[in-house]
Amino acid sequence: MKITLKDGSSKEYAAGTSIIDIAKDISEGLARVACAGRIDGEVKDLRTTLDTDCTLEIVTATEPDGLRVIRHTASHVMAQAVKNLFPGAKVTIGPAIDDGFYYDFDADPFSREDLDAIEAEMKKIIKEGHPLERFELPREEAIKLMEEKGEPYKVELIKDLPEDATISFYDQGGFVDLCAGPHLMSTKGIKAYKLISSSMAYWRGDSNKARLQRIYGTAYNKKEELEAHLKRLEEIKLRDHNRLGREMKLFTTVDVIGQGLPLLAPRGTKMVMKMQRWIEDIEEKEWGYVRTKTPLMAKSDLYKISGHWDHYLDGMFLLGDPQDPDCMALRPMTCPFQYYVYMNEQHSYRDLPIRLAETSTLFRNEDSGEMHGLTRVRQFTISEGHLIVRPDQMVEEVKRCLQLAKHVLTTLGLEGEVTYHLSKCDPEDFKKPENERKYIDTLEKWEQVEQHLRDILNEVGVSYTEDVGEAAFYGPKIDINAKNVYGKEDTMITIQWDEMIAEKFGMYYIDENGDKVRPFIIHRTSLGCYERTLAWLIEFYAGKFPTWLCPEQVRILPISEKYADYAEKVRKALASADVDVTVDNRSEKIGFKIREARMDRLPYMLIVGENEEAAGTVSVRSRFAGDEGAKSLDDFIAQITEEIRTKAIRKEEAAE
User: Fold this and answer.
1) How many CB atoms lie within 10 A of CB 488?
2) What is the pLDDT of residues 2-49, one digit of tens each?
3) Got the DSSP string for 576-624?
4) Could you tell me which residues are beta bridge partners of residue 290?
5) What is the pLDDT of residues 203-243, one digit of tens each?
6) With respect to CATH, is domain 65-226 assigned 3.30.980.10?
7) φ/ψ of residue 202, rounded to 5
8) In this structure, which topology does domain 547-645 adopt according to CATH?
């Protein structure tokens, strides 16, 4: 057979030659660092034998595919170590992931001390250098093997495989695991690894199934790479909103209240209020919206008309028996409520577009395993809006929604941190019987609307990806997403094109001929979910928010009690200019007060003493420029109020 190598050269080998043997023939050094092979673009185990002409690349740890093989093998070594130390643990699945690996076990929770012991056992297994030997078994023999080893989860996985599936295992020093591979040749190939944490997980991600214990780890080819990664993780922890937000007294959670129901503390509430007032103000004054206020719940009848009862029932909180015609449900969205605001009076084509906005509190029954801080909650508030438009207005209004979203992101300093997505239907869904489909209407209609959104994104000039199957059941949408510090992507802002729902509600307007015509609808958010955006801001700014967003913008630090009256005079002057200001009147040394203000990430502190009182000045320190020197009180008020008014984002210059 003829093998074409990465550099374009070709060599002939006997049929049945393995990838690792070809690597050795090319170079013993290459074989030592080989992790896998890429045959005609597909990653394969080094043990794979070749029988026909093909292209072959030897994959090393310098590539993501090579790192994944290292991490996959590390997950098996970790599983072996767990079985050695905790024989009663049952193994489930253990894949490589983007920045490491994990393995789920049916076992008691693991402590940090347990993880340290598992790491030490892994070191022993790696040092022993067990070869990883691949073998295959027929279905019944594979099931029998896992039953004999007391691994019920592996038995279930085997039974769920297709009848014609190849059932393969890897044996490393007597530890046998069901796995398709690929793997390193030996456990000695793992050079640098670390177990990061453990947490609860559900078997197959289903909250109705067994609760498991997941151990996360990572592995690299070099110790230096691992140390750099661990340093990045420490930096991530410092920005994690779930830790930092609590530390800064922005929010908390309480077990007796419930998962996914955070309490915003006064400081966090003030930040959300500032964003809410700003959004409501610009929507009305600059973007042509009118505001509504609608109920937090409705009868099941409303959701049956909209289709949410059929498509979204599992995500709703019900108040009563769903079979009862008087059953109520907390609202998971505001759209059907605002439709009835529109239909409260008759509208002419001249009235459109009508842009309805609402600061909406919503309720969604998220899976308990998905709850996380402020990013995934069961009650949240969004900057929701629905535009009722004529068909000829649709494209321009979607563009304006996109422009508003970009304005909001730019003002918050977050525009460069987002990705744009065209969330489309899955064409395969339309092959199902109508009563089993996710999406309403026809595939042809969906493709037409998706092209409209595609054209808008291209015209606006943003880079975007197309996500199949991510659309809502009644229309495609533009999703603006952002990643948290751990790399998980969440949708922050949505703009959705809807030609279909108006008919369900009998919505219409009177056109120039006096006929009743169905309008189109745009579902959109401008800032998105306030809780999720607050989490994003905490992580992006590491708690050092732009001055206009800070719950405490200035702290006055009198040098001693003698200057308390002057400090109060300064406070009143700032407060009358709508600056959020406090006075630290504690009988502590000024150095201690300054350090605490720095730790609280305040944008400004004003030190006042004898000289400042005599001259009517304040000594300004900021986290932007450090010691800014003495300024007249009027000058400082003019400076900070202009910074707040313009929502300026000052560069962090001073090392505080």
Assistant:
1) 11
2) 999 988 899 999 999 999 999 999 999 999 999 999 999 999 999 999
3) HTT--EEE---SS-HHHHHHHHHHTT-SEEEEE-HHHHHHTEEEEEETT
4) 356
5) 988 878 999 999 999 999 999 999 999 998 888 888 999 99
6) yes
7) -100, 145
8) Rossmann fold (3.40.50)
List all residues 6 or more positions away from 9 whose beta carbon is below 8 Å from its beta carbon.
Answer: none
- DSSP 8-class letter at 318: E
Side chain identity at 286, as an amino acid letter?
A: E
The CATH number of the structural domain formed by 2-60 is 3.10.20.30
Other beta carbons within 10 Å of 112: 10
Q: Are strands 379-389 and 354-363 parallel, antiparallel or unpaired?
A: antiparallel
CATH topology of domain 263-291+361-541: BirA Bifunctional Protein; domain 2 (3.30.930)
CA–CA gap between residue 266 and residue 72 (Å, rounded): 46
Cβ partners under 8 Å of residue 458, min gap 6 = none
**Rounded to whole angstroms, how far apart are CA atoms 246 and 265?**
9
Q: Taking the mean position of all CA atoms in its chain, how far away is CA 635?
A: 42
Cα(500)–Cα(437) distance, rounded to whole angstroms?
15
| Local structure of 118: helix, strand or coil | helix
Residue type, 400: R
Return the domain boundaries, the chain: 2-60, 65-226, 263-291+361-541, 547-645
pTM value is: 0.79
